[in-house]
Structures
1.
Amino acid sequence: MNIRDTQRQAVIEQLAGHLLEHGLARTSLRQLAAAAGVSDRMLLYYFADKAEVLAAVMARVAGELSTRLAEAIPDGSALRPAELVRSAAAFTTGPDMRRFMRLWVEVVAAAARGEPPFPGIVAQIMAGFRAWVDARLELPAGADREAISAAVIAVIDGLALVDICSEDALAPRMAGALSILLSD
């Protein structure tokens, strides 16, 4: 890895922390450069444009989230949908994960509004999470894996949304209730 690539990775690390702390509120090119401790011109030396910056940083954040999820639910796990929802929900609604889920909700909202580059970022991250869920599902032959994986993600994202929007501890209780409903 050359010096430019090393410095680019350091910028990505700085900006991943910045987005997790501040969300999308401070993402002008100038604000991103300041958060990374570089000039606007230097940021554009490392990246073609703001879209590439955000895509690289969100890929880094998604990678960190995937690593944490894999630690909580390791590769090779084969769980029924209800158990996967229970395990993933317990993890994603924890206090350490709230900043990841808040950023994810913001990015999804920006994609829903059609704000570049977020639709493409969301599509890539969702494909990765669908593959992650699919690899951990124990399903009967003939089950629609793609639809069930997407449904598991929808439930987990919904729980995270409730967790973000609630002052109380409703999300973990809701995860337990959903798991009961799904196992019937």
2.
Amino acid sequence: MENTPNKPRVQLDRDAWIQAATEVLAEEGIAGLRVEVLAKRLKVTKGSFYWHFQDRRDLLMAVLQQWKDGRIRDIIKQTHARPGHELEQIYHVIDVYSANRSRRGMMIELAVRDWARRDADASVIVSEVDDIRLRCARELFLACGVPTEEASSRCMLLYAYVFGISLMIYDKFDSDIARLKRDIADLIARSQHATSASSGPSGTLAHQG
């Protein structure tokens, strides 16, 4: 009788653990993020975890760092505008971040923010990301000729809107949600000052997808 060859042992790198931990964080929150849960999900032993991390805290900090790096890359990408197209980019930012495109991304965001309410390290990371969010958006408004104080208010309003709408179920509120979103975008993006600095879209903008 021939011997049945043993299945090769799964070799997981550090990123695989971080990815799995991020998924558990999104689904169950920080309380559900335990080494034994991850090992079971990845179908490996707990012992293999310690080849890559000192302890659970080490993993948690890696998850936070990856989230932070990813958020900052995306913020910089979405707020980068060619000279003269800053107003158009403001509309793009509103459109991208208010669209119901990534439920997973929002679940991760909410889980990280809930985590930050209870953990000082997580709070510092979230604060850094939010500061970059607001500063990058404010630069767009300033480039459109909006005064500094108003630019600060408008970028804060922008993110209050995109985060708030992500938590709401509003499909039955208005018969024309697309029109509603365009009107809100106009209220946020346009002011008497933001006129000449950009060749951006009007209120009838066909938002980018």
